[in-house]
Amino acid sequence: MKTNYPKARELMVERQIARRGIKDDYVLRAMRRVPRQRFVPDALREFAYEDSPLPIEAGQTISQPYIVARMVEAARIRPGDRVLEIGGGSGYAAAVIATIAAHVFVIERHEVLANLARRRLKALGYRNVEVRTGDGSGGWREAAPFDAILAAAGAPSIPETLVKQLAPGGRLVMPVGDTPHRQRLVKVTRGEDGETTREDLGEVLFVPLIGEQGWPDPTARAPDVEEPRKPEPDADTQLLRKRGIALPALDDEGFGACFDRFATARVVLLGEASHGTAEFYAARAAISRRLIQAHGFALVAIEADWPDAAVVDRYVRHLPVRSEPEGAFARFPTWMWRNAEFAAFVEWLRGHNATREPAQRVGVCGLDLYSLQRSIRAVVDYLDRVDPEAARVAKHRYGCLVPWAREPAEYGRMALSEGYGRCEKAVLEMLQALLERQLQYGGKDGESFLDAAQNARLVRDAEAYYRAMYYGAAESWNLRDRHMFETLQHALGSRGKDAKAVVWAHNSHVGDARHTEMGWTRGELNIGQLCRESYGERVATIGFGTHGGTVAAADDWDGPMRIMDVVPSLTGSYERLFHDADVSPCLYDLRAATEPELHGRLSSAKLERFIGVIYRPRTERWSHYAEAALARQFDAFAWFDRTHAVHALAETPGKGMPDTYPFGL
Ligand code: SAM
Q1: 313 and 193 fall within a common domain
Q2: In CATH, what number is assigned to the domain containing residue 634?
Q3: 110 CA to centre of ligand 1 in angstroms
Q4: Where is the composition biased (Basic and acidic residues) (predicted)?
Q5: Which of 136, 266, 339, 611 could form a disulfide with 86 if both were Cys (CB 3.0 to 4.6 A apart)?
Q6: What CA–CA distances, in Å, run from 411 to 305, 370, 440?
Q7: pTM of the prediction?
Q8: Measured from the CA of 89, which atom of ligand 1 is nearest?
Q9: Are residues 196 and 243 in the same domain?
Q10: What average pLDDT score do residues 315-344 get?
């Protein structure tokens, strides 16, 4: 799909810049004007408005939009100003400054970057920017004095020569730190009398300023210099080693028991860091077995569509099998639930239920809403059995959506262009009519009524979801996760007042969104957050993570599944921290009440990896990492340093296979 850059830019300014507290009108206006996609390599244009730095030529980075805005605001750039930028990189920040100031002088040490920036700025019509190649750590004497100086790379201390090049009243904003990659953003203001004042603007992560007044050039090291020794483990690593609970092997009976500490919760949410990792499925199966056997959990709710999970539910609860032409989980991504690890759990659950009374049998339900067509069919089929006249009305009402049932996104597009949801009223009326007849219909077969009602809810929510898709990702994401939460509540409610559930869904759904970039910058919520808000302490959220290995995923939506290598985790990420602690498999209890020190240390924003059904190792940092405060996001984290792809089952049932395929083989 072609990216709508002006819209993406507008959203960037609103969500990443204004919402985070940047108020300076000059900055907001400039950020709204500069086309950031023109300053990144072509292959990364689609990520130009993401909330992160991106790689550019010469192994350097273009800064995160927010940090550019923050620095320009701190430097209080005004029309008429002469500004020096040190570390021009792509030229993007220079363009933002040039939109406000009278003249911008830019120094960049890499010639390729300086040339590219010059060309880009010229092509975009910036006539007030001068770019030169060289070491900018000593400033630009001939062009001084400056009203403002900004450095986009970190030095060990503020070079005095730069302060001297400030005009009276001038501002210098630059990262300073005693290691090359971790700094504090510092602002120095030169008073009219030459006196300087210094302000600390908080922690930042910049590349090092390499030069005479900065750090030595690492590539200039003499070849016979000894390699630096592996550093001593730092305090975080030592703490992780001390507080981690080493887990037994996945097939060891004791594995599940390590999670008993969370069994008092009413809902235990089990995450996964990818949709295609065997260890995450096997671990969730082991934990769920324990919660069911030893703690009376009655429901397993999974991130799958309701009708698909209903096939499994009937199978595990020994209910009569309904004819399902496609079997369960036939739509992309099939491997997410058609895999040997999940199938083994299903077989176990069926065995567990075999000796129990029907009312005591543990069920499975699907939380997702991508089954518009099948759900419509399920409601109509149900009514055909219990009330053929109502089935006729249902066909008429759903008839509005039928032309789009195969390509529901097209419905969303139409709804947007017409300005309203043509089928909204019909799907709502259908659900209401069904619920009003609960007593009449439910008397005949309560189970089937609940199933039909849930499918009717799904159709209602899916209609809204596809409509919202065109208004922006956050709205549709929120509708989807609200649907998941409501489905969980209905399913729990149908099982009795105190029924307890295990949820299997991705970390991005399970971990409380309020403590991740999703919530901070995009206003997204998730089922983990909604559960926390409703159940408080009676919910446990457990995230899962890995450093490397293989994963089953596709290159693109609807593409074939491939087994891919997972890129080793990034320096500075939570995953790298766990990898360095070197205990695997391992469970970390992150709750403030039980592990105050660990909770405190793992509560600051750091990168965390999220792989879904699509995996793009080439652009891994920008496609798969986002910031999160891990110990606030999850109550616990299960770590598997090396992991393997799930064992996918054949995509289509073989001839003569039972209707319950791929279960009950
Ligand atoms: N503001 C830039 C942008 O919008 O693309 C981001 C620049 S990047 C974070 C930092 C840049 O500083 C790199 O391109 C690096 O080559 C440059 N750099 C590092 N040391 C330098 C020095 N002594 N003089 C000039 N540039 C330097």
Answers
A1: no
A2: 3.40.1660.10
A3: 8
A4: 223-233
A5: 136
A6: 19, 14, 34
A7: 0.70
A8: 14
A9: no
A10: 87
